[in-house]
């Protein structure tokens, strides 16, 4: 039984390929893009997320953490207080609003001490603590995927394997693609393209469409903002196109990073040279993932960047269209 790590399965997705789709998000990514909107997916092993706005400060997690990585910081006059021992009573107080006179506590997680054992997740009833991924099997994923077949048939949809970078788990991905093919379900692979060509060889015959990211044409800048060089990515994209695979290129438009004239023209010129390219999707940057970085205890690298204006999106589309590319703004 082949298994893999995923961090989400999203149903009724309409932005990850044609029609209504189920998107399966596989964990693990070799890139660390500054604007990544799924930062919890970058690690192959599940990450601990803590959302302070959901926390009831009940103290349950403090008591169970085997590493002593969680503590309560109290703002009462006496200073630090001990953790409440009757948690159910505390929870009831909180739920009924009777806790209003209690001093407020902050829950602090020492990420240096945390081993990611996830014990605290299982006792957190308010879902302030969550795990970013879980192990599952091909059969378990397919059971969920197959339930939506009527929607795929009705809309011309199917399944999209995204991430993270789905090519980081080639055997798992390959088995999933084959299982979909057996059920005659349309498949799309959403990739950064950063993988050994052997991995593409392993899966390309079973994928109906590739959503292929193009982040920056300049190698130095690409490495700076994603953590990896772009040569292998451009090379893989060329090879896929030369072998006749259906490809939709996706450009995330990030103000101040890749929206300058030079990069837009270089992108247009490169994409126009590819045979079998179905079109280009221009994806506007958004900052809604910022809360996830806080939940992970990570620094967000673009705190002052705002989504591109409609004019900026239209201008980028115009530049790309001047290379006779079919451009869709998302
Ligand atoms: S168990 Fe959850 S709600 Fe309770 S203190 Fe810990 S994080 Fe907050
Ligand atoms: S995941 Fe980290 S914080 Fe939570 S119980 Fe395990 S060691 Fe403690």
What does this molecule look like?
The protein has 330 residues and is α/β, with parallel strands linked by helices. The radius of gyration is 23 Å and the shape is globular. It folds into 2 domains: 3-46 and 133-329, TIM Barrel, CATH 3.20.20; 48-131, no CATH class. The model is unreliable at 79-103 (pLDDT under 50). Strands 7-1-2-8-9-10-11-12-13 form a 9-stranded mixed beta sheet. It has a two-stranded antiparallel ribbon with strand order 3-6. The protein is built from 12 helices and 13 strands. The protein has helices at residues 60-64, 87-96, 119-123, 138-147, 149-155, 170-182, 197-203, 219-226, 231-242, 261-272, 290-296, 310-321; strands at residues 3-13, 21-26, 48-50, 70-74, 105-109, 129-131, 134-137, 158-163, 186-191, 209-213, 247-253, 277-284, 327-329. Helices cover 33% and strands 22% of the residues. Bound molecules: iron/sulfur cluster (SF4) (2 copies). One iron/sulfur cluster (SF4) binds at residues 48, 65, 67, 69-70, 109, 114-120.
Q: How many DSSP helices? A: 12
Give the CATH class of the largest domain.
Answer: Alpha Beta
Class per helix and strand makeup: alpha/beta
Q: Give the integer mean of the pLDDT values.
A: 90
| Neighbour order of strands in the largest sheet | 7-1-2-8-9-10-11-12-13
According to DSSP, the number of beta strands is 13
Strand content: 15-25%
- Within CATH, the superfamily of the largest domain carries the name Aldolase class I
Q: Separation of termini?
A: 38 Å
